């Protein structure tokens, strides 16, 4: 997706950056609006700025193809990309899956908890305890289309 044009939306982009930098703030930011108002441009610009200026690495998911819009597959896809980018996430996820003996995770809520919440909580606790690996910033665009 296209980024914001230079010099535009600086106020909201600054608010997003402040939210990312606030380790004590809320951990979910939901940007909503009517189709075509620029939510994807905000996401793309935020990703570019994170990649260029931050210690934290973004994990980005743009849901564009019809097949990507299945709620059952979203959290598996997010978990896969996080595992590719963050070794501590991958290790924790592998340990958790080994303890469950690879049993299939049923239901979107359970997938979200087991694949996202628990491993990310582990990563963030490591990041706050002085680990050299920063916690990820997860950006999901077009979730409202699922």
TrEMBL record:
The keyword Cytoplasm does not apply. Residues 8-146 form the Nephrocystin 3-like N-terminal domain. The keyword NADP does not apply. Keywords: Repeat. SUPFAM superfamilies: P-loop containing nucleoside triphosphate hydrolases. Pfam families: NPHP3_N. Signal peptide: none annotated. This is Nephrocystin 3-like N-terminal domain-containing protein.
């Amino acid at each position: 997706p296209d980024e914001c044009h230079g010099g535009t939306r600086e106020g909201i982009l600054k608010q997003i950056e402040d939210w990312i930098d606030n380790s004590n703030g809320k951990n979910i930011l939901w940007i909503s609006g009517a189709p075509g108002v620029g939510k994807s441009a905000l996401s793309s610009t935020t990703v570019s700025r994170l990649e260029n200026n931050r210690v934290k690495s973004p994990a980005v998911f743009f849901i564009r193809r019809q097949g990507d819009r299945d709620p059952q597959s979203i959290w598996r896809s997010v978990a896969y990309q996080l595992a590719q980018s963050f070794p501590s996430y991958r290790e924790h996820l592998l340990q958790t899956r080994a303890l469950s003996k690879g049993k299939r995770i049923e239901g979107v809520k359970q997938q979200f908890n087991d694949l996202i919440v628990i491993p990310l909580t582990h990563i963030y606790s490591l990041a706050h305890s002085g680990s050299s690996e920063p916690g990820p910033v997860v950006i999901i665009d077009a979730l409202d289309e699922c």
